[in-house]
Design brief:
heterodimer; A: mainly alpha; Fumarate Reductase Cytochrome B subunit; 9 helices; B: 300 residues; alpha+beta; Alpha-Beta Plaits; 29% helix; elongated; binds iron/sulfur cluster
């Protein structure tokens, strides 16, 4: 990896960025359609999908598509998301994290403890949503499952759907909160200062042996 | 009584009350099925398909008398036959007319996510309004009696309407009309309960000690009731549930989970908002860039 024109460090290459945004858009669609079918107060959202039956038809397909697209990201991100001792320490210093006191935190690699935690929460949620979703997918699969399993699947699907939505709200907020993060996912690069501040170990790793200018 | 069939008192997936002022002050309706009088002739099945213009596919013999073998979108009622050997060693042929029970507290209606796809009239009838149905099948998940079926053709849910259209104009359901032995009777729930009691006294006097009425309290009672010779063992009648009720899993899913979930999402977003206002964003400034530059310069 090299330094981009002068002051840029590449963080996400184009294929990763595109995949991320494919996942993001499908997530919005699947979450909105799921909420529409979950709570009567949000049933009106089915109008965005062409009505109730269309929402019912589309939701599971979008969900599967999102899970598949995320799997591509998951494979890429897997290695960098292994939890380490310092990540747990980082998570324990939650107070410093929330109050922007980076100087009190352990050095962070490519991802911090929060990002890694989110990564695994997403994996668990998507797995459970996929499995329970198959059981409650009436058109193709429900007849192969006992009704009690379908009932349990419905409850699990709702539960993990909500957990995932909350997790993504946190994810989106974190991106708004930590300035420069959104640019990393839209344009692909961060400034050396950003990398130094938020992911110092990763900064050292990618700049090793590179003399600036 | 007729207009009760037009007064909707409960609607699926609706958060505000339905019109409730006009109630069933002359009594809600009920259909009483006396299994002890049923001869299994299936006249009611034929009457049902005739009145409702339903034609199920012609199947093949599956080795027992049940025909068709199961309820379907085209067969809203069905005689289920059980050969039961009683403790005395005698064979009893237990025949039960299966179909929607028109629960006072319907699991299907509780589970349905589509506003107005399932309604309950003031007279107690639970009806599916297919034009509002989205075909998700949650009603199947919610029903304690395994009644609703989704059509392969149009992906809508169907089940017995208790001939709500006939009842609305003062007629009894088609099956009741057709029954040659008078095993199916229709009237107010009160009258039907009373009639059942007389039947039970009679049955007991004939040696059916355990005869009784099936009007399960777990679903708030039903608007289709059975007189059973063995009311202590409803399971004998092709698995009629002993103590049916809306599954606790379904109640949890359709109950507290809904407000809790909304709360969780809104609370998460609110915490983020307050954090941004209170603590503020985490920005990278010139000092960080300088520090990074210094660090880069000292790397060989
Ligand atoms: S028997 Fe099933 S379909 Fe009929 S009212 Fe009860 S829950 Fe609904
Ligand atoms: S399939 Fe059943 S639960 Fe789903 S919308 Fe239709 S009636 Fe309601």
């Amino acid at each position: 990896m090299s330094l981009q024109p002068a002051d840029r460090i590449e963080r996400y290459r184009a294929p990763v960025r595109i995949t991320h945004w494919i996942v993001a858009i499908s997530f919005v669609l699947v979450a909105v359609s799921g909420l529409a079918l979950f709570h009567p107060a949000m049933f009106w959202l089915t109008n965005l999908f062409g009505g109730g039956p269309w929402t019912r038809i589309l939701h599971p397909f979008i969900g599967c598509f999102m899970a598949a697209a995320f799997a591509l990201l998951g494979v890429r991100f897997w290695r960098d998301n292994a939890m380490q001792q310092s990540d747990w320490m980082w998570l324990r210093k939650f107070n410093d994290v929330a109050n922007n006191r980076e100087q009190n935190l352990p050095e962070v690699g490519r991802y911090n403890g929060g990002q890694k935690l989110l990564f695994f929460v997403i994996i668990v949620c998507l797995t459970c949503l996929f499995l329970s979703g198959i059981a409650i997918w009436r058109q193709y699969f429900s007849e192969y499952f006992a009704v009690d399993l379908v009932r349990f699947g419905s409850l699990l699907h709702a539960f993990f759907g909500i957990v995932l939505i909350c997790a993504i709200v946190v994810h989106i907020y974190a991106a708004i909160w930590v300035k420069g993060s959104i640019r990393a996912m839209t344009r692909g690069w961060v400034t050396p200062g950003w990398a130094w501040k938020h992911h110092r170990a990763w900064f050292r790793e990618v700049t090793k042996g590179i003399q600036q200018r | 009584m007729p207009l009760q069939s037009l007064d909707i008192v409960r609607r699926s997936a609706t958060t505000l009350p339905s019109p409730e002022v006009r109630g069933a002050h002359t009594g809600q309706v009920a259909k009483l099925i006396d299994t002890t009088k049923c001869i299994g002739c299936k006249a009611c099945q034929v009457a049902c398909m005739e009145w409702n213009d339903l034609r199920d596919a012609i199947g093949s013999c599956t080795g027992h008398y049940d025909n068709p073998p199961d309820l379907s979108e085209n067969s809203w009622t069905l005689m289920r036959f059980t050969e039961y050997e009683n403790p005395k060693g005698d064979l009893e042929w237990l025949i039960r007319k299966d179909g929607c029970m028109h629960c006072a507290d319907p699991g299907c209606l509780n589970a349905c996510p589509s506003p107005g796809a399932i309604v309950q009239y003031a007279n107690g009838i639970v009806d599916f309004q297919e034009e509002n149905c989205i075909g998700c099948g949650y009603c199947i998940t919610g029903c304690p009696f395994d009644v609703p079926r989704i059509s392969k053709q149009d992906k809508k849910a169907y089940k017995c309407t208790l001939c709500s259209d006939r009842v609305a104009v003062g007629l009894e359901p088609a099956c009741v009309k057709s029954c040659p032995t008078g095993a199916i009777v229709f009237g107010t729930k009160e009258d039907m309960t009373q009639h059942a009691e007389e039947r039970i006294v009679d049955l007991k006097s004939r040696g059916f000690e355990q005869a009784g009425l099936y009007d399960p309290a777990g679903v708030g009672g039903t608007h289709v009731m059975y007189v059973l010779h063995h009311a202590d063992q409803p399971m004998l009648y092709s698995g009629l549930p002993d103590k049916p009720r809306i599954s606790p899993t379904v109640s949890l899913w359709k109950g507290i989970t809904k407000p809790l979930a909304l709360f969780a999402i809104v609370a998460t977003a609110a915490v983020g908002f307050l954090h941004y206002i209170g603590v503020g964003p985490n920005e990278t400034d010139e000092r960080d860039e300088d520090a990074a530059r210094r660090e880069l310069e000292k790397t060989p």
